[in-house]
Automatic annotation (TrEMBL):
It holds the Pfam family HNH_4. It comes from Cytobacillus gottheilii. This is HNH endonuclease. The keyword Transport does not apply. Residues 212-267 form the HNH nuclease domain. The lineage of its organism: Bacteria, Bacillati, Bacillota, Bacilli, Bacillales. GO terms for molecular function: endonuclease activity. Keywords: Endonuclease, Hydrolase, Nuclease. Signal peptide: none annotated.
Amino acid sequence: MSHKLKVGELRETYITDEEIWRILTVVLSSKSVKSSTYKYALIKALIENLYMVNDNFELTYNQLAYSFTKIYWNLIVQHKLIHQNRGKTARVVTLIKETQTNHAIPDEMIFDKISDDLQIKLVSKIKSTMKENVYGALYGDTRGSFYSFDHRQEILRISPAVHGFMLNYQRLIVNLTNYHLAAMIEQLNEVPSINYLLGKVESIAKRSSLRPFERILLEYFSADCFYCCKPLTGITRETHVDHFIPWSFVQSDQIWNLVLSCNKCNTSKSDKLPKRDYLEFIIERNHELNDKKEDQVVTNWMENYKSKKMIMLYDYSIKNGFDTIWTPS
């Protein structure tokens, strides 16, 4: 059985968009055997890390396990959606509930708020579960054409063609995956409606607070709005942290996509793309962050960042419908 595989080789060196759509449609449909919500969560974790691949299109199991754990923590602990499996309780549910109970963690605490040590321990346990039940299962459903994986090296390599496809159709894939994940959770849990669930599923990747990023940005850069350049002082101009490329497209919080902003610009910009001129500014800013080699936190946050990723992200967001361009008034 494919989910028992410890190594999966990429079987296709080239695959067309039409073939990828055909396979993805089957994966998301009832034709694919789904005893749990694991496959949907892995697709969401892959999308959240699309811009974190290295030059060989590789992601580490730790990167994917962190996103995977965050998805389930917020579904299970915050929203009490504990049925994620047909039949016996899913292993990921057991691990998360044990952690919550053993450490007396309240239901309202989202994953990013628990201690770093506890996060690392839980992610490590869930990484082991993913090796047993997740990577091989989705690999089998996609006929080995989406990615290769190696449990010993703990590396997943996305097919370059599939990576480009996911970038090109990211928003649509996210919406489709969220819908089908919500539909399965609705079948497994007593909930009011799928519309109720969609709101929960769509928000599970979002970090509760951007304060750690704000502290770093204020430490290394002047307290001015990135967009209008006005000082971030006084009650009327309180400091905000804004996703340069809208979060609803990026689906993750990366320091290289975050800027300091005043309240007026942040509110006005909302879910829009800033004028392309600002792309040069953020690339220059990120060069400065990359030079902070003495700061290990910043170095870790900037891992695998390259200027071309920022440009690619900007261009692909336009292709995905974020084509309303904003400039500060």
